[in-house]
Design brief:
The chain is an alpha+beta fold. The chain has 10 helices and 20 strands.
């Protein structure tokens, strides 16, 4: 038995969080949920100025010995999204931000100055919303049946006319009903009965007086536009098309385009403090560590503009555990035209040229 999330119908914010225990023996589901709730609360305040905490999340659980499974339904008074598609866009934004933070954590390593830019804090009148540490966020990565890492938030439950499981119901042929989790802090309206919990678990049913404030989050609101919490002096700019260093873009593309596979730059991120350009590569997974293409895990090309070198890392969990980083290679001189000017100049002039490029980026 399920409750529908129909397209065009106002919807609460809801989440389906799960993982297979046998593939993740060290994971403790409730701890992961608490970290994820921090991300949601921070993002709500970051984008909409809405304050929330764990006491507003109805936490339902259907875990078994084999699988951790829970639903979260946020109970905001007189506030909802236009429909579940907009909810999905908001959730995708949160998950993409988490993934980006985790990738940066593995890229830079603990203790790097870049890590401090991954944290955020929003001060309000009566609440401090904190974005979790990268060391906490990386725990949200779980191993799936395919052996690959995924976030434990199911992002596929926000399509049009989608159904969402109801309180006390079970899946067909299963014996694990969706019940109130021991960790739940949300208190329904009095009397606190199963009926009220059931009504609050319906993502398109609202028990409120007056009009509902409707929120939107279109699919054009990408992290490039929305990641305002990251200090500009550290994570300077990111995007999916041409970077300000188009000569470097062209060179990186040549590295991942072969007769067998045509890779492309899925996203680039520029860290101005360290003068690093990080390219996330798609459709090309050759890893120097194993001497072949990974089956599913993508690679990164890191360009160090300060040292004029580049190297490869990847998102494969085994390579991460080994701390793999390929041999560093020198960038071709022709793709760094500003360094040609440096032949008869000192390092200060070189820095001025790079900072001039930074100034152009800010505009």
């Amino acid at each position: 038995m399920k409750g529908s999330g129909e397209s065009g119908t106002p919807s609460k914010i809801y989440f389906d969080l799960e993982f297979e225990k046998k593939f993740n023996p060290t994971k403790h589901g409730p701890d992961l949920v608490k970290v994820f709730i921090k991300c949601v609360c921070y993002s709500l305040h970051e984008i909409y100025g809405i304050e929330a905490d764990s006491s507003l999340f109805l936490w339902l659980d259907a875990s078994t010995k084999e699988k951790f499974s829970c639903h979260l339904i946020l109970q905001l008074k007189n506030i909802a999204f236009v429909d579940n598609v907009h909810v999905g866009n908001f959730v995708h934004y949160i998950c993409e931000k988490i993934r980006h933070n985790i990738e940066t954590f593995y890229l830079t390593g603990c203790g790097s100055s870049v890590l401090t830019s991954m944290r955020g804090e929003v001060e309000t009148d009566n609440l401090t919303c904190s974005w979790p540490d990268p060391s906490e966020l990386k725990e949200l990565n779980i191993f799936g049946k395919d052996g690959n890492l995924h976030l434990f938030c199911d992002e596929a439950v926000y399509t049009k006319n989608r159904n969402f499981r109801l309180y006390l119901s079970t899946k067909m042929g299963k014996g694990a009903p969706l019940i109130l989790a021991p960790e739940n802090q949300y208190l329904p309206q009095k009397p606190s009965s199963s009926e009220n919990i059931f009504l609050d678990s319906l993502v398109t049913h609202f028990r409120c007086s007056g009009s509902i404030q409707l929120l939107t989050f279109s699919d054009t609101c990408t992290p490039k536009q929305k990641l305002t919490d990251l200090p500009k002096q550290r994570v300077f700019l990111q995007g999916c098309q041409q970077s300000p260093y188009f000569e470097v873009d062209k060179f990186v593309h040549s590295l991942v385009a072969s007769s067998e596979k045509t890779g492309y730059i899925r996203r680039w991120t520029y860290y101005s403090d360290d003068e690093l350009l990080v390219y996330d590569i798609a459709n090309y997974r050759f890893c120097e560590n194993i001497g072949r293409h990974h089956k599913s895990n993508n690679i990164m090309i890191i360009v160090d503009l300060r040292r004029c070198i580049y190297y490869q890392k990847c998102l494969d969990p085994d390579c991460r555990i080994q701390g793999f980083k390929s041999t560093s290679r020198t960038l071709p001189r022709e793709i760094l035209p500003w360094f040609e000017i440096m032949e008869d100049s000192n390092i200060t002039q070189k820095r001025d040229l790079v900072r001039t490029s930074d100034t152009w980026l800010k505009t």
